[in-house]
Amino acid sequence: MPKDFSRTRRVGEQIQRELAVLIQQEIKDPRLGMVTVSAVDVSRDLSVAKVFVTVFDEEHDMAQTLEVLEHAAGFLRHCLGKSMTLRIVPVLKFIYDESVSKGNRLSSLIDAAVDSDRDKHRDQSDRD
User: Residues 31, 68: contact at Cβ < 8 Å?
Assistant: First the structure.
């Protein structure tokens, strides 16, 4: 019977918490926008961690943000090694998480459809 809460998942969640603080407090690059770490997926052997990030500032370019994070990956990995008790600290791979932007886009489309439908019903009731 598999565990409900595997070691890789626990390690991923701890890395997510630690990286969120480290990125906010330790990286002082002005090209970096307001970054949130939405998820961390750790390989079974704990050698690689895919870090999914989202930028909330529209003015910051996502490609440039990923470049800054990739450049700081060694430093962040070093800091993780100090704060976590792991024999091997995973290599960090930063990936843009599109789910938030897609969710915002869908939400705005739904709002527009509801407003359009409301306007149609008003026009029909005004004619009657």
Answer: yes
